[in-house]
UniProtKB/TrEMBL annotation:
GO terms for molecular function: L-malate dehydrogenase (NAD+) activity. NAD(+) binds at residues 39-45, 65, 125, 148-150, 259. Residues 178-341 form the Lactate/malate dehydrogenase C-terminal domain. It catalyses: (S)-malate + NAD(+) = oxaloacetate + NADH + H(+). This is Malate dehydrogenase. GO terms for biological process: malate metabolic process; tricarboxylic acid cycle.
Amino acid sequence: MNSMLRSARTLATTASRSSILRRGYSSESVPDRKVAILGAAGGIGQPLSLLMKLNPLVSNLALYDIANTPGVAADVSHINTRSEVTGYFGDDQLGKALEGADVVIIPAGVPRKPGMTRDDLFNINAGIVKGLCEAIAKYCPHALINMISNPVNSTVPIAAEVFKKAGTYDEKRLFGVTTLDVVRAKTFYAGKARVPVAGVNVPVVGGHAGVTILPLFSQATPKANVSEEEIVALTKRTQDGGTEVVEAKAGKGSATLSMAYAGALFADACLKGLNGVPDVVECTFVQSNVTDLPFFASKVRLGKNGVDEVLGLGPLSDFEKEGLEKLKPELLSSIEKGIKFANK
């Protein structure tokens, strides 16, 4: 009898909790928000579309690609969550996908394959990003732009130049998504420090490629007894995380799943900021005065207009100071390459 009572109480408590959760996620409690994903049928785009469909802050999910989007949209639309899903494809439907968007996420373009240089990536993706940003300037100039398409160190400056030409540029609304660097740094640090990963925080600054990625393990929390040699190894692994996955997949893809997860995390932070949730802080690649470079990734407080405040780097270890000086020439070169491409 006692066990039956305990079971009944447990069921009642569970039911009560689930009704509270449902109320918390009810459409009346949060504003309507449209999210557009450009490149939604690709390797990152499909899992990202799934994850954004699960986000209760999204009311309208527009999935766009050059082809195959109606199938992805039909599949995702069957999931019993708040947002309505529409698929769009081809140049003539891009405007409809973008109209009224609050957040535009761009994973469009080709992924990195073994042996591909960042220049190879640039030559293909730069033109794709430029065309998409011209449409954004026309159809949703006030949206928050989450740039995932690589090389982010160049595609964000390309977007900025396109928006400047169109007269719609607002530096507070353009973000390079570097969240995957943070996700990796947290995972690798937690493994080495033997602490639960859920409570770990590691700021990652700089850019979003190779040596331009600078994890600040000296600021990692919780503090742990990790040696200097281990910090060097953790830094290298964080910088080479993408290559690690490309090689492990042996020509069959890149870090699509972890990137989709990181992209969904950052988009969620943007939506929370738009909705007025206080103290939403994420690392992201933005126009910045934190260093002498025009764009730089660091902690940013997000708000109702996008960037609320770009936060400083905080105290750096000698190893991190050295890393910062090392990354600057390469990051500047990538930024200038993007600006030059956009203006030719």
